[in-house]
């Protein structure tokens, strides 16, 4: 992966219908997008090959899950990294809070999946983040450390890993972390990587923010030194996605953020 580029991962979740997908692929294909932003489209399994045929090669394709093995017991109904590579997938999204919470995926299982996907030649996007109760109790750092420790136990080579700080309390709420809260968590993650993996990895692994990212708050978030891009959920199938991809930081943007123009999305959020 290129050193500290800007990334936008569109999590299409359970998008359904080929017509909807055609519309989104057209939206991405015909509009002018920042060449300095790598765009990764996360798509449900049934549509992966269809989307790969529609999108230009500049767009990377991600599956929204995979299993930790390719054969044997417990693989019925699962999808392996080998299958994904066969249909043009280069990335896989793992550890999303939807799966950790609703399907009880443990830190250990997420780490095992990530390690196996890497061993089979896929790049991985791994989500980490704390619940509202964890943050309220002051346990954000310890929760992140536990999740990262599980990954480090299984991952031997971090070169093709991307991490997403995804505060669980922000998902589906329409509320985003304040920029300094996002930076605090991502800064902790980068320092943890330096202490427990290597300084080189800490400086090169992309760290993304995910959680109610919109065209309104993306610039303020992107100004944070450890935000290397976004995982976009609800707005990944809307026109907002184009503006998020084109989050260009310049002096004019900096002045707008400093003046408070982009702060309104955070006003109804408890400032932890």
Automatic annotation (TrEMBL):
Extract the InterPro entries matched here: Aldolase_TIM, TIM_sf, Triosephosphate_isomerase
Keyword flag Phosphoprotein:
no
User: A Gene Ontology biological process annotation?
Assistant: glycerol catabolic process
- Please name one Pfam family that this protein belongs to: TIM
MF terms (GO), sorted A to Z: triose-phosphate isomerase activity
Query: Family per UniProt?
Result: Belongs to the triosephosphate isomerase family.
Name this protein carries in UniProt:
Triosephosphate isomerase
